[in-house]
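Worked example 3 (structure in, sequence out).
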């Protein structure tokens, strides 16, 4: 029994010795490489006055300094961009038959809402706003591009993804100026879109107006030639009116197809399928027209009444087609201006948007507390490290390297 007890006591003694060595190793590790949380709290508690008073003082200074900053007011306007609608000319193309594609390349410009945002951010609009509000002097800039950059920083234009509304927010030192600048963005957008739309409509109107005048002169000339050949109602009944009208319609279609082909060549390559299809259509119309002309060439009489009557009906049909296109272009010119519906008109804001004094004071207080906390800890551990004898040589070499010796 004594030997067993002796062996058991030795085993317990070895276990205790091992546990004590392990705990000592842990304590040594904490002392050498670790940082005790309680020690950190002790260090900070010793400097609690600094950590409490300094951040509060910094926040108070930030709050006081915010009163020296000129207030900024933000005005906002919201509007519905123009909805894309089919122009009256495009809707009537199918009913015009022969000239259905003549104005196809000159249809109304289709612009998404993103394009209206880009228009308000264009130099055209920005320069007019800069000149109207004298922003070069207000922003204290020397050049116009600097005023544009400052204006872009003070203006925020966004497009709602769900509702499709465009919002314009403008920052300014005056409430009235902020509201006026926001509303002027909408006014300038109306002006710019109206000019662009009218320019496109005027081009179509001018084109058809010129064609109409030329056709009218040719129609008058054809009528005079027809009358000089003895044209009268009795002769009209005796002549093949239906055949002549069919020839005139076919010739008008060929002329329309040729004009459309020339218009397409301005914007498409020769290898484009649309251009080749239109060229094939023109060739077919010309072939059919040549066949009719060959059939009627043998029936000429002395007065050539049929040819003159046929030319007259051709000019008359062409004149009617161009007249319809001209009227449609005039109608588009009068109503093609984009309709911008303002949902919320910008009004002078009643309260400033900047600076946010409370947010500035709170943010400064927390930032100062963080900076002072880091500073206290760094200062404490620097002094501790410097006081250790084993670091004296390191600090000596650091000083020599700093002084350049």
């Amino acid at each position: 029994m004594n030997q067993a007890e002796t062996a058991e006591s030795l085993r317990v003694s070895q276990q205790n010795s091992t546990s004590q060595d392990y705990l000592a190793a842990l304590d040594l590790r904490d002392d050498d490489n670790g940082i005790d949380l309680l020690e950190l709290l002790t260090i900070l508690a010793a400097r609690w006055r600094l950590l409490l008073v300094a951040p509060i003082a910094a926040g108070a200074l930030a709050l006081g300094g915010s009163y020296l900053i000129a207030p900024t007011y933000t005005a906002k306007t919201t509007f519905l961009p123009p909805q894309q609608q089919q122009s009256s000319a495009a809707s009537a193309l199918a009913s015009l038959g022969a000239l259905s594609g003549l104005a196809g390349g000159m249809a109304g410009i289709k612009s998404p809402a993103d394009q209206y945002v880009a228009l308000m951010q264009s130099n055209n609009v920005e320069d007019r706003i800069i000149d109207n509000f004298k922003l070069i002097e207000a922003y204290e800039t020397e050049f116009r591009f600097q005023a544009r950059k400052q204006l872009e920083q003070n203006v925020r234009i966004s497009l709602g993804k769900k509702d499709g509304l465009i919002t314009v927010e403008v920052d300014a030192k005056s409430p009235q100026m902020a509201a006026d600048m926001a509303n002027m963005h909408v006014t300038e957008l109306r002006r710019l879109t109206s000019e662009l739309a009218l320019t496109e409509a005027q081009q179509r109107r001018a084109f058809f107006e010129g064609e109409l005048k030329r056709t009218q002169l040719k129609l008058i000339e054809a009528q005079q030639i027809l009358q000089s050949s003895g044209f009268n109602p009795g002769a009209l009944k005796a002549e093949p009116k239906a055949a002549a009208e069919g020839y005139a319609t076919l010739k008008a279609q060929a002329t329309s197809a040729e004009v459309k082909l020339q218009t397409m060549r301005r914007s498409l390559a020769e290898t484009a399928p649309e251009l080749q299809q239109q060229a094939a259509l023109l060739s077919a119309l010309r072939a059919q027209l040549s066949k009719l002309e060959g059939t009627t060439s043998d029936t000429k009489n002395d007065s050539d009444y049929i040819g003159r009557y046929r030319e007259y009906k051709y000019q008359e049909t062409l004149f009617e087609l161009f007249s319809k296109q001209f009227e449609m272009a005039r109608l588009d010119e009068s109503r093609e201006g984009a309709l911008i519906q303002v949902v919320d008109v910008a009004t002078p804001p009643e309260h400033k948007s900047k600076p946010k004094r409370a947010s500035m004071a709170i943010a400064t207080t927390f930032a100062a507390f963080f900076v002072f906390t880091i500073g206290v800890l760094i200062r404490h551990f620097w002094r501790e490290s410097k006081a250790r004898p084993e670091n004296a040589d390191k600090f000596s070499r650091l000083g020599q390297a700093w002084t350049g010796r």
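Notes: The radius of gyration is 45 Å. Residues 22-33, 85-111, 230-238, 297-303 have pLDDT under 50 and may be disordered.
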